Amino acid sequence: MAFSAEPAPGEEKAESEEEPFPATAAAGGGAGDAGELSHEEWRRWGTSSPLPGAVAAVVRELLEMEAAAGEKMRFGGVGSKLKGDFKDVEDKKHRAVYETLADSDQKLQYFSARQIGCRLLGSRGYLCQKCWLPAEDCMCANVFPCNLWRGMKFWLYMHPKDFLRQNNTGKLLWQVFGIQAAQLCLFGIQEHEDIMWDAFQRSGKGKISFLYPNKSTIPKSVKDLKFDGLSLSSDLHDMSSQDEPFNFILLDGTWSNSAALYRRLKERWTAIWGDEDIPCISLSTLSASVMHKLRPQPAWDRTCTAAAAAGLLWELNLRPELSTLEFEKQAEAVECSLDILLDALTTRRVRLGRSITRKQRHNRNCI
Ligand SMILES: [Zn+2]
């Protein structure tokens, strides 16, 4: 697939509202982890996957460069970019690596690993590994965990630029439902993508829905899913596994990045099933999320990822045959976590003297 490492125009604007890392954030900063990335550290950020080889390699290279330069790495500004003289050295090196990569998929994988490696090093000792907020604003104690109905599973297909973002809302889903029921899959990270697609192949194509407005085919909604008394599927005649959960995939990134996420999903879907028609569903009861007040154009249909998940659970709750599955409780748990995140971010912004509302022109679509 065609891929550009350059940010899309809308993306720059979105990132400009991201809170910069503090000048003190450094690779080995703070208590706890330092040096090379371990499997344990990797998993504490919200994933059960093994440490991806490409991310480990990027971190190792950065630390080696730091040792050779005899200068501490510093991260700051938007996107946790490298700072100081070190930045120029690293920049030259990463561009040289990039040039050697022949195909666009390798370039994409390298881009993703580098983004994630820099974000990880810049967040060490600064962000809480569970809620991705600065330690002093950690909201973990306020979040109530809840069991997701075991007949379904969420996948957060996340753009690397959303990884470890304080105002990301996809992370709320595994804070509430746990990292198995709401699983992180990072775009361009081979280990993550293979785990997700292996799960899809186990479940069968009838147990997969992407929450993405697909304009090219007949729009489908939650109402079109079939329920046989035990499990959900998009087609009861399909040879899907009864034991596997139904997979709902949420695209977690800015609006411009979501199109790239979708293209990559569609490409792999077609490669596996030889079918151009990727199963998308849209929600019919969407409302602008409370997060919209703090976040520029959000990922999906003017709502944020967690609000989309809550909307999906509300729509499942509306189906009488599913009424015993407690979707109301699950939807409320997500909405409650969203309120807690909004409060934590607002409190932080007020304390730091930042504006708590977005510019008026962004607010016109809010309810
Ligand atoms: Zn926390």
Automatic annotation (TrEMBL):
It holds the Pfam family DTW. The keyword S-adenosyl-L-methionine applies. Residues 1-47 are annotated as: Disordered. It catalyses: a uridine in tRNA + S-adenosyl-L-methionine = a 3-[(3S)-3-amino-3-carboxypropyl]uridine in tRNA + S-methyl-5'-thioadenosine + H(+). Keywords: S-adenosyl-L-methionine, Transferase, tRNA processing. One of its GO terms (molecular function) is tRNA-uridine aminocarboxypropyltransferase activity. InterPro entries: DTW, DTWD2/TAPT. The keyword S-adenosyl-L-methionine applies. GO terms for biological process: tRNA processing. Its EC number is 2.5.1.25. SMART domains: DTW (SM01144). Residues 124-354 form the DTW domain. This is tRNA-uridine aminocarboxypropyltransferase. It comes from Setaria italica.
